[in-house]
Amino acid sequence: MTATVLALLLLLASLVRSQQQFAASPFLTSGNSLFGTYIEGAAVDSAGTVYAVNYGGNNDRASIGSVSPQSPFFSLRTAATTSAFNGIRFSSTGTVYVADPVGRRVLAGSSQGLADARSICQEPGMIDGVPNDIAITTDGRFLFVSGMRYTANTSPTDGQLWICDAKKGRAKLLMEMGRTNGIEVSPDNTALYISEAFNQNSQVVSNMIWRFDLDAASGAISNQRLFVDFTALDGSGGVDVDGMRTDIMGNLFVARNGGGEVAKFDATGTLVAKIKVSMKYPTNLEFGGVTGTTLFIVGRCESSAFGDGAGCVDTFQSDMPGRAFTELQMLAGAQPAPAPAPPPAASSISESSTPAQTSAYLSAPPAQASAPSSPTTLKPSVTTPTSPQGATTPSTVNPMLTNELSPLRASKSSILVPTHWGIAPLLFGFLYLL
């Protein structure tokens, strides 16, 4: 009797823990999006406005626009062979950083529209595809950049991890790895996360996330250890990791490009939730909106091929605000809007150098183990949005077109309610009969 009860309780706990499946809501679709299929680099400013690259359609790879309202922010008006933007980050100093893997540089600017944009951290040792994405320390001093050379058979030198000193404008190579992509800093600035992937015979065969200890004062990283191996986790090593973001509790949200979902991990590396999205290829994500709790997920629309179609955006209402939004609000001297209480159903929830493989910033070899100033005023404060209406297509868009906002209406797909709660009453009823 006792053994049966314990077994059923363990089964219930397992179901509650392992089947937290949620769904995001479509926000920008192929019918109203002004972004192209190369949409990437979701980032937030201190007002909660979220931005992404490839605004205005597929012909402008070096452009940035806000997601809500859809509005142009910056464009180099240059050929994609010269520049193509990818990652974006806003800093506490009011500077915007943009990863340009074609130009092999980071662009930095602080004025509206980045009219004062300048190149920093442009180093000869950067391989094709670097920098791809950016992580930033709270004080804005250090940028960590990832990037990869995409080949049929990935070598251990096809990806790189660089540190960029934003004050000096110089970069240093920290590591060569497999394909590096998603990158993020923990909210307490003590950990750096980076993804690594490998191809074999033109097929993706492995995806992992590594965690390093981080000394934010010096930018030094150490104690590399495995955070998650997706092949061991659920057999999804063939689905690429793309953009990654943390919330203020240290949870890591990971875009699974090709898997049509976002995975949520707690700080110990435990998978706590999966969020299904409307696009198969989500590329990046960021928390924004008036309280910083709306997760914006960007990616190529389901019906679109690269270079032919639109970029989509989904939203998901989280229970905690994002790290970037919260830090920018605090450092700008603003008082962040209080985050809503979690719903009961979700309660479980120097000089440049190019070393061969590591640098002095790495003080210990990797050990594979289970891991447990002035405000940015680039956009006015906004209310959390719903899907804009009446947007024109990219081919006919007025360069200064904006779309009105209206408050976000919660839908069943965006409420934090696990899909498996119907199992619990059955099990408890069975226990009662015993």
TrEMBL record:
Q: Which GO terms describe its molecular function?
A: hydrolase activity
Please name the InterPro entries in this protein's record: 6-blade_b-propeller_TolB-like, SGL, SMP-30/CGR1_Lactonase
Q: Which ranges are annotated Polar residues under compositional bias?
A: 376-400
Q: Where is this region: Disordered?
A: 334-400
Which residue intervals are annotated with compositional bias (Low complexity) in the record? 346-375
Keyword line: Hydrolase, Signal
One Pfam family linked to the record:
SGL
For whether the record's keyword set contains Signal, the answer is yes
Q: For the SMP-30/Gluconolactonase/LRE-like region domain, which residue ranges apply?
A: 80-297
Q: Does the keyword RNA-binding apply?
A: no
- Annotated signal peptide: 1-18
Entry protein name: Calcium-dependent phosphotriesterase
What is the scientific name of the source organism?
A: Gonapodya prolifera (strain JEL478)
